[in-house]
Write a structure and sequence with these properties.
This protein is 40% helix and 19% strand. By secondary structure, it is an alpha/beta fold. A seven-stranded parallel sheet has the order 3-2-1-4-5-6-7, with helices on both faces. It has a five-stranded parallel sheet with strand order 10-9-8-11-12, covered by helices on one side. Strand 11, helix 10 and strand 12 (291-294) form a beta-alpha-beta unit. Helix 3 packs parallel to helix 4 (127-136). It is globular, with a radius of gyration of 20 Å.
Amino acid sequence: MRVAFVDREAAHSIWSLIDSIAISLIKRGDEVFYYRFCDSHTRENRAVPNGVKVTDVEVPFKRSVFDLVSQHCIFANALGDLLRDHKVDVLHSHFAIPSIVSRWVAKRCKVPVIISTQHELYGSMSSHLRLGLRFTQNCCDAVTYISDSVRQSFAPIDRQNGDDVVIKNGIDVLSLEEHRKIHYTTPAVQTVICPGRFVPVKGQATLLNAWPAVLKRFPEARLCLPGAGPDEQKLKQRCQELDIDTHVDFPGWLPREETLTRIGNAQIMAVPSAQEGFGLVLAEAMALGATVTVTLPDAQ
């Protein structure tokens, strides 16, 4: 069987979860393909399991809605060629971008099984993404949701056929507990960490706007923002405007092990996203014993 996974190249948490599935598939003799939607200026070139065949599709950096259209046209053409050339049996996509175009192209290419996992709350997305999901929802043979709240939020576009199921994000609790035992140290200063891609939906700007109030009570506190993305310069500029740049660290993309170590050693991990249903990084942080503070978005 030939199985293809599709997501943004920068979706590191999701790829780390897919890696474990890919390893199991390869062990039983299946072929595994990663088709990565590359829309970021920065690339980590993360390692993938042995045997996985990776294709990166470069698309223009998004500056306007016209770039968004161009991105999807380029990716659709490339994906169609890949699905036909590799004779893919199963396609599994994640997130609205690039899931919407992936589902539509896979249906046109007559891929036998199309699976989509919904991570985002339906009502929190922009209108054009909701329209795209509504249009392609019935392209799928099965849709999985990462939480009951995400599943309930998609009630307005319940599908007419196929299987829907909630499969909550899974993590290796034992390995995370062992990681904490080895790497935990008492931090010298009070630290809040917020790892993630620098895009508006992740909410780092909200956290920065609140940081002056934190510093009034805890003058030595530091905020750590591991990651990269199109909003990086905007976030750094906002730090300067708020006169908090000496209290905020931007270490860039970090290897997974180092990110876990920093999360486990921070006093608090903040998740200010108003869109994600239940991110993997949140579950990992709790398994590491970190105190977490999160937003409570409206599922509808």
